[in-house]
Amino acid sequence: VQLQASGGGLVQAGDSLRLTCAASTRAFSSAAMGWFRQAPGKEREFVAAISWSGSTTVYADSVRGRFTITISRDRTGNKAYLQMNNLKPEDTAVYYCATQESGNAQEAAAYDNWGQGTQVTVSS
User: Fold this and answer.
1) pLDDT in tens, 97-122
2) Are 27 and 3 in contact (CB under 8 A)?
3) How far apart (Å, rounded) are the C-alpha atoms in residues 34 and 114?
């Protein structure tokens, strides 16, 4: 099972970015999917998660109303997206996608497959 995160970049405050997490079909067969981020010198923190069906989402307070997590499935594979609007300098971090089979969707320890991360930098 491999997860590939992409879409990061350098933007200005107020701009938008869309992160993509591409995964093999098997990765999404019975899992929820989450996005986490880690800024330099800080612990990895929860950003957003979505159930494998796409019917349930949860967000960190710091991004609720600005970020949207979605899942898509087609014959080419499964992808999860994190649409990030109105970005702020404090959103600067490496963003990771991950999948889990069960557990608290807001806890990194509940996830067992992680992508390599994509850097998001927001300048003021």
Assistant:
1) 999 888 899 999 999 889 999 999 99
2) yes
3) 9
